[in-house]
Amino acid sequence: MSWLVTGGAGYIGAHVVRALADGGEHVVVYDDLSTGSADRLPEGVPLVVGSVLDGAALEGAIRDHAVTGVVHIAAKKQVGESVERPLHYYRENVTGLQTLLEAMTATGVGRLVFSSSAAVYGMPDVDLVTEDTPCLPMSPYGETKLVGEWLIGAAARAHGIRAACLRYFNVAGAAAPELSDAGVFNLVPMVFERLESGDAPAVFGDDYATPDGTCVRDYIHVLDVASAHLAAARRLADAPEGTSLTLNIGRGEGSSVREMVDLILKVTGKQDIAPHVTGRRPGDPARVVASADRAREELGWSARHGLDAMIDSAWQGWRHRRG
């Protein structure tokens, strides 16, 4: 098959591109390069520069490269920014997906792997989040991902599209330093930034109903996220028309913020720095941990990398980017 990967020059996208290419799939990247970089792409992988809002460009890329499936990763993804710019997020994430689906139906492309998010769940009050846990997103970003899943489901029913929606949990790590996350929006790079500036890492609240009082999350290596996309792409290759899967992509193991910060301090050799506890952030649930059983059953996939590998590779990438 030939896969068009939207957002394939970004952090997660570039890892997915490598996983597909290494797995023997033909890959074409479609990216507007607003946050991605062509330097992330393996040699020989074609790059089409364009917006997901440009239907003609999408159709052209699909036809020019004989694309038979799409992995849709391109999206705006910052929760705080989505609160400030909801119209922008709905245009890019929802209208962009609609435009892509229109291009797919116009060109007869019938397979789609969609980058969704655990943000669709909001603040679930459960020990393990399953795909059947009620979705109550708490930000415009989470809403756009849930609406995207609905839109894909409708297209699957109406047009026979085979689809897999992958709900990522907390992604970290890198396959190589040059592929590391350039943003500072998640826990691991946020702690790195604090340490680099000589400040103590901040822990938002230590009075939650968890073993050490700090929030518990499911952290997953970006290499495992990438391998999940390859598994989903292969699952859809011979799936019946109208197949629609929704799958959690996590390790199924919870780690507290304090555990993560302590491990980061160990990896960076800064154990002498004590984290600074501040007040809770509004909207932070005490625990969000995936049940990954359905992904294992449907894809034969499970996460293979642990926290040490995640943090060590992220740290190597941070140092690489800082020269």
Strand content: 15-25%
Question: What sort of overall outline do the alpha carbons produce when their principal axes are compared?
Answer: globular
Spatial extent as radius of gyration: 19 Å
Reported by name, the CATH topology of the largest domain is Rossmann fold
Individual helix count? 10
Strand order of the largest sheet: 3-2-1-4-5-6-11
Quaternary structure of the protein = single chain
Q: How many domains, in number, for the residues?
A: 2
Topology:
Elements: E1 2-6, H1 11-22, E2 26-31, E3 47-49, H2 55-64, E4 69-72, H3 79-84, H4 86-107, E5 111-117, H5 140-159, E6 162-168, E7 170-172, H6 187-196, E8 202-204, E9 216-217, E10 219-221, H7 222-237, E11 244-249, E12 255-256, H8 257-268, E13 276-278, E14 287-288, H9 293-299, H10 307-321
Parallel strand pairs: 1-2, 1-4, 2-3, 4-5, 5-6, 6-11, 7-10, 8-13, 9-14
Antiparallel strand pairs: 9-12
Helix pairs in contact: 1-7, 2-4, 4-5, 6-8, 8-10
Describe this protein's structure.
The chain is of the alpha/beta class and 323 residues long. The protein folds into two domains: 202 residues, 3-Layer(aba) Sandwich (Rossmann fold), CATH 3.40.50.720; 111 residues, UDP-galactose 4-epimerase, domain 1. It is built from ten helices and 14 strands. The strands form four sheets. Strands 3-2-1-4-5-6-11 form a seven-stranded parallel beta sheet, with helices on both faces. The protein has a three-stranded mixed beta sheet with strand order 12-9-14. It has a two-stranded parallel ribbon with strand order 7-10. Strand 5, helix 5 and strand 6 form a beta-alpha-beta unit. Helix 1 packs across helix 7, helix 6 packs across helix 8 and helix 8 crosses helix 10.
